[in-house]
Amino acid sequence: MAVQLGHAYGARVTALAGKTHHETVLALGADEVFDYRTTSPRDLPRFDVVLDTVGTDLRAYRNLLTPTGRMVAVAFDINHAARSLGYLLAAKVLAPRRIHFFSGNPKTALFADLAHLTESGAISPVVDTVFPLADIARAHETLETTSVKGKLVIQVA
Question: What's the predicted TM-score (pTM) here?
Answer without folding.
Answer: 0.79
